[in-house]
Amino acid sequence: MKKIYIFTLYGCSYCRELKNKLTELSIPFHDVEIPKNRELWQSIVKQTGYDLLPSVFIQNETDNDGLIYTPGRDFQDLNEIIKIIKSIN
């Protein structure tokens, strides 16, 4: 199974909703809090050109590469990113 990383900020209602939904669906994920991982977050923003949350990184099973999904660019709402996550896991 691929690893899922959710980039979040405390107080972000969209981040909380996504994490709650993944938990309800028993889909494991890693919560990456931006204040504790600023350099990593800046790398994500540089790669995508977007500074929006919740951004999702889905790591390949065989290496550290993967795909980054950013709201507004790759999905429009939580249902859409949930569908993406379910389809690739």
Would you write up a description of this structure?
With 89 residues, the protein is of the alpha+beta class. It has one domain: Glutaredoxin, CATH 3.40.30.10. It is built from 3 helices and 4 strands, in the order E-H-E-H-E-E-H. The protein has a 4-stranded mixed sheet, sandwiched between helices.
- Mean pLDDT, nearest integer? 94
Category from helices, strands and their pairing: alpha+beta
- Reported by name, the CATH topology is Glutaredoxin
- How many angstroms separate the termini? 6 Å
Question: How many independent structural domains?
Answer: 1
Shape call: globular
CATH homologous superfamily descriptor? Glutaredoxin
- Helix % is 25-40%
Percent of residues in beta strands?
15-25%
The CATH class assignment is Alpha Beta
Number of helices: 3
Total strand segments:
4
Order of helices and strands: EHEHEEH
The major sheet is characterized as: 4 strands, mixed
Quaternary state of the chains? single chain
**For the CA atoms, what is the radius of gyration?**
12 Å
Please summarize what this structure is.
It contains three helices and four strands; from the N terminus they run βαβαββα. The chain is an alpha+beta fold.
Layout of strands and helices, then pairs:
Blueprint lengths: L2 E6 L4 H12 L5 E4 L4 H11 L6 E5 L6 E4 L8 H11 L1
Parallel strand pairs: 1-2
Antiparallel strand pairs: 1-3, 3-4
Question: Which tags fit this structure?
Answer:
Glutaredoxin
